[in-house]
Amino acid sequence: MTAPAAPAIAPIFATPFAVVPLAEMAPLHAALQPLFASRAADSYRDPDMPRDPLCFRGREDLFEWQSEPVEELRRRLLAGICGAVMGANAYTETEFDALRIQARARLTIVHPDGCVPASSAPMASWSACYCVAAPSSASGRPGSGALRLYAVRDGTMFIDAANWRLREPFSRTHYLWAPVPGRMAVFPAALVHEIALNRTREDLVLVTVRVRFAHAGQVALPPW
Amino acid sequence: MSVPIQVNPVFAVPFGETQLTSCERLNRELEALFLSRENDEYRNPTPTHIPQEEMFESRFNLFSWTEPCVQELRSFVLGSIVQTVREASSLAPTDLARLQLHNHTWFHITRYAGSFVAHNHPLASWSAVYCVRAGERSAAQPRSGVLRFMDPRSGADAYLDIANRNLRPAFALGRREVLLEAGQLIVFPSFVFHEVGPFYGGDTRITVATNCWFT
Fold first, then answer.
1. What is the pLDDT of residues B108-149, one digit of tens each?
2. Is the separation of the CB atoms in A194 and A118 below 8 Å?
3. pLDDT of A159-182, one tens digit each?
4. With an 8 Å Cβ cutoff, are A155 and B140 in contact?
5. Fewer CB within 10 Å, N side or C side of chain A?
């Protein structure tokens, strides 16, 4: 009797998650950091978010700041996001280029012992998390300051010996991405995600973006 | 012309909530017992999540301990779960009384910056959390130690407009948060993802959690 052929196992219902490295960002970061430090203040804080002394979350108008470094950051982040989004879609480059993008971004500074609670990003199709500055890794604390994407979609209540240890990409555990300066994570906006507790003694500086796209002939998108 | 329309909660999630009256003595005894057993002998040897030095998790056999305070709590917690099942299901009380109730029960002691990542409890039908000690409140961090429940209707809040942003509580989209008080018990279906936000008190936050299944 011959052994059965190896089964073809494919990930279906897969979730796209892109890490976009942006080249030579150090000079831009050097220009941005004093600006960000000066604006991590109450007057720039998002009043709709609970006040948190361990985590500054700015208003979602970062891309509208009149500042050359911010304009450069916007240009580079949106280019990176578009590359990731196009890579996950079936559009040709020409078709994709005809889409109109809308984006809102905010500055987030996670201080030591701070975190960003779990949420998803409404009224958008994609989220991005760009790292401007990250602490050196916290020894023995692998999740410190990580972007944690919740694996809640496939939360089956039946677990046995044959489904609790599924290998990647089938595993049902939360996904951790450690922010690295100059890198950006791009993922579907409906995914519940958080920034886990920063267990170091340094700040984590992030720019988070939610984006959406309109077809060329589309008259309007719903209000944010 | 307006017509009468009946709006019903469908796909609703039953949450039971109760408060143990005069819980001070019991909680004092439980706290002393738990703190005395916050050691490797009683620690959960097979944690399902990355352990944190700021949070102690006991073995899951708490309700088999014979100390009177533990048995008193067991009676209150399991009784409240049975009552929740009775209220939420169509089981006749006599049928429910014939079922065997199994449980895994443990305690958590959380110190500054301790938290617990979002999770649910497969192979159980009902879960509950009882608060022994809420811990110091932080004026700067009003959500310190919050018990946060995720909306199981994944993606439902991705499109929001004026007509679904402010739904009445039974229908509202998004997460629910509970700041537990000593003596408070929350009962919920085990499928609901939940987490504990960072605790920023200078003392300890102590809770008992249980997962139940019936045969």
1. 999 999 999 999 999 999 999 999 999 999 899 999 999 999
2. yes
3. 888 888 888 888 888 999 999 999
4. no
5. N
For each of the domains in chain A, give its residue range(s) and CATH number, in order of start: 18-214 (2.60.120.620)
Neighbours of A99 (CB within 10 A): 17
Interface of A with B in 115-174 (CB under 8 A): 115, 117-120, 122-123, 142-143, 148, 150, 152-153, 155-159, 174
CA distance B198 to A195: 12
Instruction: Find the mean pLDDT for residues A29-53.
Output: 96
Quick check: B123 and A115 CB within 8 A? no
Structural contact between residues A54 and A105, judged by C-beta atoms closer than 8 angstroms: no
Pick the residue of A152, A153, A198, A211 with the most B CBs within 10 A to test the interface with B by mutation: A152
Q: Which helix (H) or strand (E) holds A71?
A: helix A68-88
Strand residues in chain A grouped as ranges (E): 18-21, 55-57, 100-110, 116-119, 126-133, 147-149, 175-177, 183-188, 193-195, 204-214
Please give the pLDDT value at position A220: 79
DSSP conformational letter for A31: H
Instruction: With H, G, I as helix, E, B as strand and everything else as coil, classify residue A175.
Output: strand
Asked if residue B147 lies in contact with residue B180, where contact means CB atoms within 8 angstroms, the answer is yes
Please give the single-letter amino acid code of residue B68: P
Could you tell me which chain B residue has the CA closest to the CA of A115?
Answer: B198
* Cβ neighbours of B8 (radius 10 Å): 7
Tell me which long-range contacts B48-52 makes (C-beta under 8 A, separation of at least 24).
Answer: B48/B119, B49/B116, B49/B117, B49/B119, B50/A142, B50/A143, B50/B117, B52/B114, B52/B115
